[in-house]
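**User:**
My hope is that you can spare some time for a protein that puzzles me. This is the protein in question:
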Amino acid sequence: MASTPSPHTTHLHSLISSSTNHNKPSNPSSFKLIHSFSTSFSSTISNVLKTADISLSRDLNGVVSTPKPTILVSEKLGEAGLDLLRSFADVDCSYDLSPQDLCAKISLCDALIVRSGTKVTREVFVAAQGRIKVVGRAGVGIDNVDLQAATEFGCLVVNAPTANTIAAAEHGIALLTSMARNVAQADASMKAGKWLRSKYVGVSLVGKTLAVMGFGKVGSEVARRAKGLGMHVIAHDPYAPADRARAIGVDLVSFEQAIGTADFISLHMPLTPATNKVFNDDTFAKMKKGVRLINVARGGVIDEDALVRALDSGIVAQAALDVFTVEPPPKDSKLVQHENVTVTPHLGASTKEAQEGVAIEIAEAVVGALNGELSATAVNAPMVPPEVLFELAPYVVLAEKLGRLAVQLVTGGSGIQSVKVIYKSARDPDSLDTRLLRAMVTKGIIEPISDTIINLVNADFSAKQKGLRISEERIIVDSSPEYPVESIQVQICNVQSKFASALLENGDISIEGKVKYGIPHLTRVGPFSVDVSLEGNLILCKQVDQPGMIGKVGNILGESNVNVSFMSVGRTVKRKHAIMAIGVDEEPDKDTQKKIGEVSAVEEFVFLKL
């Protein structure tokens, strides 16, 4: 007796046992995934992280239009960046907002752009009520943004890490050289009417050792310039590749070796819980007496009271600081007023060129994110290079659709707790970055059976919150390494299936797909091989393998005005059983589905929405 599929939407909410209402934006059209792959590459990536509000309105002529998003700019931004934003969105430039004012405004905004002075706290995301989709940090450091809260609320955070790199490096070198030659102190002395040549004897840089603490973009540029000044440069960075350091003549060393052997120490590390006040009394005690310190990174990495003590004792001969724990620092700050300290008011990125560059870079990142593009500068989403994004584009769609198909095959009330994703590829497993694909499988599985809106930012977090364990396996196959993935297989473990033919011998639901000619295809259901394009909707029938079955089912669909886009039949043994996969443009009504189930050779079937 053929089984008629139960409605696949009404009972699915119980399938994930710990599903909650957590993290659903108030606007259900946000982060909408467009399921057609007959689009350009940019539209495909939009599917990964769709952030544009697509609420529609009509003008006086009745033409449907999409309202512009609203972008709040809470700190001054270069005109070139503002012009770019205004060409795309309604821009609200409101500076010097109190935390209360920011929370009051944020629920009316789709994006927020800040510099270092605005604190984007959890309270801001709560007040946004799910509307805020992108936070743009005009600069590198993002310690003023609560990344955990942003991720939980599905908000993308982007920064502008490249435009001010040279400016920050140049300022670091300026502080280094001016400190070594007492430029600031000598200038102040002369303007006070004094001529103190002997008091301001400096030190040479040639042959001295500079320790660069943090060998990222700015740190490496400082190292290049210091090498040009004849300095011996060493660096500490637990994540920096040694070959990149060697390429510019820099030795990577341990933290202790760096601070213990350096004549000059230049700080370029982010402010994290691990680096907060990492330069303290204990650290200063391990330094060479008379060391000189430069900081153009983040003020919080230095215990400022400890630095004053180190300056007074002579352990630190001089310091040149552009950043402080509290900005601006108190007017009576002992550190700022210390005679051996040169200070500037956070000028690292303050060149005309850098300001315009940062404004343009962050504006492009925010506009791109609102358009659904995955920014290469996203800081709370998988960092996928553009060339990898381009290569993975069709596999992103395949992964999401396989997840959607697999979850629709589940029935019963036991809940989905374990999913396994298997990637077959000719490439070395270490060279295959699957974070993006895993996120899209997660999206495909959770969204159809939950009221949580899933995007690339919150996919892993949402899976964890719902008690859904997603494991991955990579299998090397003998195929062309030209393509990143030969196939993707999604298995849902320890559940019942409304289509028993999708079960493997171990009882797990299993479907597999490939990309052919740029189009995602379903290639296996359980043990049965099929070959169908994943477009439109799908009917799967298990039947006795006999002549005329395609015609019988096709006629039933045709009589009900259901358009068939393709058919494919796969079997395990000739004249035994087969799986017929039928692509349809419309969902057959209940009477049509009943007629299909009444065909004597049809043992079971299921309708699936793609």
